[in-house]
Amino acid sequence: MKQKKIRTLLASLALLVNGLLGACSQQNSVPEQIRNITRAGVIQIGTAGDYQPMSYLDPASNTYVGYDAALAEDLARSLGVKIEYVPTSWPTLMEDTKAGKFDLALCGITITDARKEEALMSDGYLGNGKTVLCRREDAEKYTSLDAINKPEVRVMENPGGLNEKFARENLPNAEIIIHDVNQEIPGLIAQGEADVMITEIMEAGFYCSKDPRLASPLIHDPFTRGQLGALMPKGSEALLEYVNAFLEEERRSGRLKELENIYIYSGNDPKTQETPAPDLVPALQ
């Protein structure tokens, strides 16, 4: 049954790319950017590679895994090309995008007006929101910004992203600790090296499912609500149109929900997921 679903998905993606490229051909030619990608046989995907369960460089296999990694594979397959991952970082993400170091970035990037002023962002494909990750014994303590915004509360964030920005803007009285390796922060919270991490509901849910010492008391009532999108440099309007059509097909076919169930609800292990968990991302309902 699973192989049949995959074959159906691949057929849908093939129809999508053929339809889009055929439509472009009727308008004189395939857009140059897409033609260059298909001729090269490679699409370059920028990723920080530090964000479970979205896009994470697994040191054991030296491969990228997660929701966005799987989505990138679907996108490459729809174009008939392979993926070349281009490492970036949250502090340099926008500059790397504007410099054209990759065709698009796909690594859990929140759609914001500020980003859309400097670059292009696709339609949203997954709802998100800022929430709290803390130790389980503190779950009843950190249930509001006021409760966290105190000098004795240590808030740990990775540098350069929206989590740090949100923490600095909304928690001026708390102690902000910057830690370079994002995926190490939940473990440090669990060990007592800090008290709180402000992060997205997907990341909070993932780490709570992996470590019983952790809790996310506001996972169903986050401080903000938004959506994730693909980021690409201005001048990539043809690729943006293609990606938006691709995402709509992924949504229509049920693939986005399938990826949600695999990578967010099951702790990043596709083999363990049998029934969908309660929905953590109501923005897509």
Account of the 3D structure:
The protein is α/β, with parallel strands linked by helices. It folds into two domains: 2-127 and 228-284, D-Maltodextrin-Binding Protein, domain 2 (3-Layer(aba) Sandwich); 130-215, Periplasmic binding protein-like II (D-Maltodextrin-Binding Protein, domain 2, 3-Layer(aba) Sandwich), CATH 3.40.190.10. 41% of the residues lie in helices and 19% in strands. The chain is built from eleven helices and 15 strands. It has helices spanning 2-26, 32-40, 67-79, 93-98, 113-118, 145-148, 162-170, 185-191, 201-210, 237-253, 255-265, and strands spanning 42-47, 50-51, 55-58, 63-65, 82-87, 104-105, 120-121, 126-128, 130-135, 154-157, 175-178, 196-200, 214-215, 226-228, 231-232. The protein has a three-stranded parallel sheet. β3 (55-58) and β4 (63-65) form a beta hairpin. The longest helix has 25 residues, at 2-26. The radius of gyration is 19 Å and the shape is elongated. The two termini are 26 Å apart.
Overall mean pLDDT stands at: 86
What is the name of the CATH architecture of the largest domain? 3-Layer(aba) Sandwich
Overall number of structural domains: 2
Please outline the major beta sheet.
3 strands, parallel
Helix content: 40-55%
Beta strand count = 15
- Secondary-structure-based class equals alpha/beta
Gyration radius, rounded: 19 Å
- What order do the SSEs take from the amino end to the carboxyl end, as H and E? HHEEEEHEHEHEEEHEHEHEHEEEHH
By CATH, the superfamily of the largest domain comes out as Periplasmic binding protein-like II
CATH C-level of the largest domain: Alpha Beta
Strand content: 15-25%
Please count the helical segments. 11
Shape, principal axes of CA atoms: elongated
Strand neighbour order, sheet with most strands: 5-1-6
Distance between the termini: 26 Å
Unreliable residue stretches: 1-12, 23-28, 267-285
The CATH topology of the largest domain is what?
D-Maltodextrin-Binding Protein, domain 2
